[in-house]
Amino acid sequence: MTDYNELIVPDRGQDATAIHLVNKDGFPAFAKTLSAGQRAALAAQKFEGAGYQVGIVPDGDGWFAVGGVSDPDELSSWCLAKLAEDLPEGTYRLADRQPGPAVFGWLTAQYRFTRYKDDENAAGPRVLLTEQVKRRDALVAEAEAEILVRDLINTPAEDMGPAALEAECRKLVDAHGGKLDVVKGDALEQGFPMVHAVGRAASREHAPRLMHLTWGDEGAPVLAIVGKGVCFDSGGLDVKPASGMRLMKKDMGGAAHAIALARLVMQSGLKVRLHLLVPAVENAVASNSFRPGDVLASRKGLTVEIHNTDAEGRLILGDALDLASEQEPDLLVDFATLTGAARVALGPDYAAMMARKDDTASAMSEAGKAHDDEPWRLPLPEAYREYLSSDIADIANAHANPYAGASVAGLFLDRFVGEGIDWVHFDTFGWRPFAKPGRSKGGAAYGLRAAWHVIQQRFAG
Questions:
Q1: Are 226 and 333 in contact (CB under 8 A)?
Q2: CA torsion, ordered 214, 335, 148, 165, to nearest 10 deg
Q3: 240 is a catalytic site residue
Q4: Residue 141 confidence (pLDDT)
Q5: What is the pLDDT, as a whole number, of residue 121?
Q6: Alpha carbon of 80 to those of 71, 141, 179, 433: distances in Å?
Q7: What is the pLDDT averaged over residues 3-13?
Q8: Which one, 151, 269, 351, 367, has least CB within 10 Å?
């Protein structure tokens, strides 16, 4: 297992290979400082200073590296990621600047998921020296939170079922204190009937449960974090096609985000009363599966008619959001791999975000832009609430028309969030279908850093 603390270390004057950063506009001037042989070496590598280009330049008995970036004076999270991926094992130092936020990409670029297969082609560790000693721990913690999300999502459902998510919550308590209550069996059926109904068809090994972790001073402002933990989604009796089921190990991606965000809160010692809620189920097919047309009770007391058993994530979130609301949180954030509609609208690079308060939504957007994790706000239109009407129950869990699927799912959740609560919902894909520098194909966090920086700013006092 990689120790990411060892990949970014304080600069004490150690021997290190230099990295020069240039862009296309500045490359001609930089090239004039090189010898003819060095310019020829870069020309042979077709290096021109374009983004994510990496060049190796001979220098006496050694060499130095050159990296192409868009703006050497304003580094983003990903400016050093390609270098961290392509350079050989060794220790490096930026020639004339500090890495700043680019530490994040330097670390995440070296992530490999090796639980089931060794990466035989992986280089050894690439270590970066930095004078940013005070910021180092915070940047490493953020990278490790991203990597935790990747690891949890990448793990197949057989090894990342409800019990495994419970174990991840227990790790937080073991490391940072707090209390974990786990509700399952008869108590789950009575107290969280929608969580039970969705998960009851799973095997005993993957029995449904709800984790409720509490941490922090009881007198502190209350922060509630909720994550959808559907560890595998067959679609239920409205079964998905094989192509739609292939990646459904990632349907617990909301829980992965919530657990990672809670860990950041606890690691930092933030002065909050934290409530982490993770409803964990497998939406399986069996003789006791919940059915289209069934009417489910909910913890809130609302009755829910099932129009589609593949709209199950919002059901388990409904019960969890009701419990979270009872804590009267100053801020309630939930994460869920909820709708394909959000992906159709925004593609794989943006989390859809819905929020009740404009100021909170703006803060999330600005924090996301500042930390290369921008969510995109979608509305919660009153006009679409009628799409969830039912002839026989208080609300339906899905609508029949093809319009505004992400927003309508958000409106369903809104019915289970207490009145007046500052609530933000992230509909996240949780998966990167194409690799980019620092961002491997597979499980991925979206909206995590945006939410974390807003939480830090809001509760820092």
A1: yes
A2: 60
A3: yes
A4: 96
A5: 77
A6: 12, 18, 39, 21
A7: 93
A8: 269
Q: Which one from 170, 171, 240, 377 is the annotated catalytic residue?
A: 240
What kind of architecture, by CATH, is found in domain 142-459?
3-Layer(aba) Sandwich (3.40)
Separation in Å, CA 246 to CA 42, 242, 313, 345, 449: 43, 6, 17, 21, 28
Question: What are the strands, taking DSSP E only, across 177-251?
Answer: 179-184, 209-215, 222-227, 229-233
Distance between CA 224 and CA 280 in Å, rounded? 17
Contact residues for 123 (Cβ-Cβ < 8 A; gap 6+): 87, 88, 89
Q: What does the pLDDT read at residue 123?
A: 81
pLDDT tens, position by position, 199-252: 999 999 999 999 999 999 999 999 999 999 999 999 999 999 999 999 999 999
Q: Which CATH architecture has domain 4-124?
A: 3-Layer(aba) Sandwich (3.40)
Using one digit for the tens of pLDDT, what is the confidence trace for 101-119?
A: 999 999 999 999 999 998 8
Q: What is the largest CA-CA distance in the chain?
A: 81
Hey, which bits of 125-186 come out as E strands? 126-130, 179-184
User: Cα–Cα distance between 194 and 191 in angstroms, integer?
Assistant: 9
What's the pTM value of the predicted model, to 2 decimals?
Answer: 0.97
172 Cα distance to chain centroid: 17
Residue 141 CB-density burial (10 A; 0-12 exposed, 13-18 middle, 19+ buried): middle
Name the residue ranges covered by the structural domains of the chain: 4-124, 142-459
DSSP 240-254: PPHHHHTTGGGGGHH
Q: Is the pLDDT of residue 364 over 80?
A: yes
**What's the pLDDT at 461?**
67
- How far apart CA 71 and CA 293 sit, in angstroms, is 57
In this structure, what DSSP letter does residue 439 have? B
Contact between residue 257 and residue 430 where contact means Cβ atoms under 8 Å apart: yes
Write the pLDDT tens digit of every residue in 267-318.
Answer: 999 999 999 999 999 999 999 999 999 999 999 999 999 999 999 999 999 9
Q: Which of 200, 299, 314, 415 is catalytic?
A: 314
